[in-house]
Design goal:
Length: about 220
């Protein structure tokens, strides 16, 4: 009820863009289970909208190119940040897509760059969509959340993963998926992306009317 209206702007844009060959979904590891960066490379995920199969060939190639991404199913069992994207994607594409889930417990600049470069190096002329799952500021007063999130969003719009990492650290921005966002920026630039665009930004206060403690949400695209 909070993030959905914001996310809908992104998934409309994806619906208009067409079906990709495969989808890489990057998410933060909230649970602390599994290895530092964990991918599943085989299997099927099931939601109330049906089943979606993992792209085993590209998933294994990403792990090989990275050297730090472990094949580890345990990190995904109790984690929501990746699976919450699937019903939206299924609504847009049906069950006609394959995907690759990568969960990031370590989100520092070096790790994020490694993951992004490994993804970009595994594309091989395919049409690959990269989705970074994250909330923005957590449990801040509305004005403070907007101020902090504006700093992070500015770095994203400049496609500057280094600046995003710096902003999160120096401004103490409680953005849970800054690593996935950084990796998406790195991969996007390596694949020729030159622009980023904000589609929607809101907070939970816009839904509840309580602006004392809010969580921020952003939909943005990175494209050629």
């Amino acid at each position: 009820m909070y993030s959905g209206p914001v996310a809908a702007h992104l998934f409309l844009a994806l619906a208009l863009d067409g079906l990709p060959d495969t989808i890489v979904i990057l998410g933060p590891n909230h649970c602390g289970v599994g290895t530092a960066v964990s991918a599943m490379v085989e299997g099927i995920w099931q939601t109330p909208l049906g089943e979606v199969e993992i792209d085993s060939i590209m998933a294994k190639q990403i792990c090989k190119n990275s050297g730090i991404i472990d094949i580890d199913d345990s990190a995904h069992i109790g984690e929501h940040s990746i699976e919450v994207q699937l019903p939206f994607l299924q609504y847009v594409y049906g069950n006609r897509f394959n995907f690759i889930p990568i969960s990031m417990m370590m989100q520092d600049e070096e790790t994020s760059r490694n993951v992004g470069e490994a993804i970009a190096g595994s594309v091989n002329d395919r049409d690959v969509l990269i989705v970074a799952s994250s909330d923005m500021s957590h449990y801040e007063p509305q004005k403070e959340a907007e101020r902090k999130d504006k700093v992070a969003i500015s770095a994203i719009l400049r496609l500057d993963e280094k600046e995003l990492q710096r902003a999160v650290e120096e401004e103490n921005i409680s953005m849970c998926g800054y690593g996935p966002a950084s990796s998406a920026i790195v991969a996007g630039k390596a694949l020729g992306a030159t622009t980023a665009k904000v589609l929607s930004y809101q907070t939970s206060g816009d839904v509840t009317g309580d602006y004392g403690q809010v969580v921020g949400y952003l939909s943005a695209t990175i494209s050629k």
